[in-house]
Amino acid sequence: MTDFGETGHLISFVLWIFILLVGGFGILSNLLIIQIFKQRKDNGKKFAFLFSVLAVFDSFACLSSVLSATSLIICFEGWISRGGPISTHFVHIALVAVMFTRTLSVQATIFITSYSYFGLSYPLRARSWFTWRRIRAVPLLVLIIAVPLNFPRGIMAYTTQRKLEFPTDDIYDIPSLNGFEYISVWSKTWLNLWERGINVVQDQLDFVVPLPTLWILNFLSYRKVSEVRKARQNLAPTQEIAIRPIYMFLPVVSFLLLCNAGTIAANLLVYINGVVYREVYFLSLLFNSVNSSANIVIYYWRSQEFRRDMKAFVAEVLKALSFWKVKSKVEPKEVMK
């Protein structure tokens, strides 16, 4: 932990660099997604709104991953007071932010996948089920689910001086904590909840239940899209337009399941060994960043309309920048008399 030349430290540092790059790309790309879908005024505006909501949550997921990885590196490298109270407490806050934004992203994806499947399977009933008012309430519903699931994590630990928690030499001599004056320890409130099995319920609702639900919904949606596309010659133009965003979104769910499988495998390693490896945690943050950054690539690959809109928007931005640059050069300077 304290030897900067060790393999574990170097791996963590390299993973942090990747998290910075991928997370920065994710923030910018999700802002671009929001801007592109903001201009949609066709029949797919409900999907455009939901995709924009997901992009907002994914932007915060990328930001939280960057902050969490950076806070750990700051402690390990000693760029600020090594293991100081502020930096140590921020490590815990950033961890909670990562878990919270992950829940937001997963729950938003569940809503979008549900809307896709039921919209295809029951098109007439879906109009009354998924009204504009209910679609616009999705961000609030996601927050209502995410806050209770992550609130216990916010109170599970507090920052204190290591000597106060481990006053005797035999307990105090923990190699992984050498050089850290302050540490985060489990709070009594969290330990009481843990003894009552609250953590098991929390993990079931936040990790175990959503992923199989997403897999089932995505599989059913894929089958339905395949059936509809086989009968393409009999489709009305409005039906063809309706399945385009669903077809575009299917790989997003598959990629989310793949990245979360990596995160779950990393967490299982922690549970089995009883040790939190910093390299494994950095790898989990990288999975989280990649998952939240990949949507723009998938949209560009799967949707001709998105490619067109993205190229048009980028062209407008470049045109505006070039016009501003030319104007600043041509504009005559005032001469003082």
From TrEMBL:
Tell me the protein's name.
G-protein coupled receptors family 1 profile domain-containing protein
Subcellular location(s): the record lists: Membrane
Membrane-crossing residues? 13-37, 49-80, 92-118, 138-158, 207-225, 246-274, 280-301
Q: Does the keyword Isomerase apply?
A: no
Residue intervals of the G-protein coupled receptors family 1 profile domain: 29-299
Instruction: Specify the species.
Output: Orchesella dallaii
Which keywords describe this protein according to UniProt?
Membrane, Transmembrane, Transmembrane helix
What highest taxon heads this organism's lineage? Eukaryota
Keyword check for Transport, yes or no. no
